[in-house]
Amino acid sequence: MNIALLTPPYDLMKQGYGSKRKVRGGLFPPLGLAYLASPLIKDGHKVKIIDASSYEYNNQEIGRMLSRFKPDIIGISSVTGAADASYSLANFLKFHFERVPIIYGGPHASCFGGIVFDNIKDLDLLVYGEGEITFKAIVDYYAQEKKMPQNLNGTWVKINGKLIKNLPAKPVYKLDDLLPPAYELIDYKKVYKPLPLQYKRLPTANMLTSRGCPYGKCTFCSEAGRSSQLYRRHSPERIIEEIKFLIKKQDVKEIAFWDDNFLISENWIFKFCDLLDKEEIRMPWSVVARVDTINRKMLERAKKSGLWNIFFGCETGNQDLLDRIKKGITLDQIRQAVRWCNELNIDTRGSFMLALPGETPVKALNTIEFACQIGLTYAQFLPTYLDWGTELYDDAIASGIVLPLYQGRTSITYVPNGYKDAKEVREMQKKAYREFYFRPSYIWKHFKRLKDFDKIKQYFDALMYILGIST
After folding, report:
1. Where are the beta strands (DSSP E) in 11-109?
2. Which helix (H) or strand (E) holds 308?
3. How far apart are CA 357 and CA 32, in angstroms?
4. How far, in Å, CA of 105 to CA of 113, rounded?
5. Is residue 172 part of a domain?
């Protein structure tokens, strides 16, 4: 069969990051769809991935591509920020390809299954949770029966107007049992590029070595809420094989690891780095990490084998708010982690949440001052988003005003009692970006980094991006 896997049209920079400036960045291939594709290709199906989000295709263009491809099944994966676009796409395709079943999945489906059916007329099936095994089972069933299954675990289905949520599918306990993503379906050289100053070389590939979070207590995170999943990790050997494939077949020159927390096991990290060195893989790589699971020895070893950039979830500059969201870290641990990285010449990007429950404008100013003082290379400041099914969501309902559903990473969906309104939250975000990035000492520090044309171009794009958010 011909199976089309799609992302919906979505302007990441404008709708996701909230920047008014047209900067191309933060674009990575849809790994989730590539994971779905691998077992289908192995079974002999023809699979086409259409990443409308990154390629800026509209519904009509997608429709024309599908008319040529002639799909037997259409799958749509969406994040919540692109929900409206995904509804529009699904209804458009259902009208033009009425006999082709449409299956909806992705993070939005896992959190808001019922809402999805409210917005997509005649949706055939919805997949929630991990989708590889479930989606393959759907394809196998349809190939035999020419209809969608009704009682398959990991799905929602509507029967005679009644929504039925079937039991969750069992997770894949040993990740190495999964086939690698179908990297061969991705063209890394066309549109995919990280945010400016968050890469050294192109093309850069995104990879996952684990699923779930071993900490799993942060009140704001879906990995600690009703959509949480068991923590599992690939073997270092498996990840090395994927990297070798990407280098050989896709000429990839850098890896961005997207694990919720990459630097958590000293034994795993040391083995991974030893294998990188043994295979003579010399490329830069970046990770996401917690400040309380690293140590200087681990950082030194990773730096030696290519680590150059770490994204830390700092969240706030107020210890009482860190405790309230059960982050499990201290301000001193944040300071220490950033200090180690600076000493080892590892770039850092700190993420901060503004307008947490219990925050006031005064506490927000503490966060801004803290971010400026600790020596971060870069920082991002985002309004608090209430993920459904999390403890933070329940906390916020009782301690502020909840506004309409998420419409992008910089849209205001929650106003704590300490703020007057959404406008005040937005102004605080603008202030945070201005005060962090336009300090004379910060500008001078980064001016000294301008050593080649590519770096100058990245800094210009970064400036446009920041101005697009802060003005």
Report:
1. 46-51, 73-77, 102-105
2. strand 307-315
3. 32
4. 9
5. no
CA–CA separation, 346 and 137 (whole Å): 44
Q: Where is the domain boundary, 165, 181, 204?
A: 165
Residues 226 and 132 in one domain: no
User: What single DSSP character describes residue 390?
Assistant: S
C-alpha to C-alpha distance for 309 and 315, rounded to whole angstroms: 18
Ordered DSSP codes for 187-225: -TTTS-B-STTS-SSSSEEEE-SEES-SS---TT-GGGS
Confidence of residue 448 (pLDDT cuts 50, 70, 90): confident
Task: Map 64-87 to HEC letters.
Answer: HHHHHHCCCEEEEECCHHHHHHHH
Dig out the tokens for 302 from the structure. Answer: 């990773």
CATH code of 12's domain: 3.40.50.280
Q: What is the mean pLDDT of the chain?
A: 92
Q: Which of 69-73, 399-403, 437-441 has the lowest mean pLDDT?
A: 399-403
Whether 466 is in a domain gets the answer yes
What CATH code is carried by the domain that includes residue 285?
A: 3.20.20.70
What's the total number of domains in the chain? Answer: 2
Over residues 132-152, the pLDDT tens digits come to 999 999 999 999 999 999 999
pLDDT for 188:
94
SS3 call for 106: coil
CA 251 to chain centre: 23
Tokens of 292: 């309380």
User: Containing domain of residue 212, as a range?
Assistant: 194-470
Strand segments (E) across 340-438: 347-354, 378-383, 400-402, 414-416
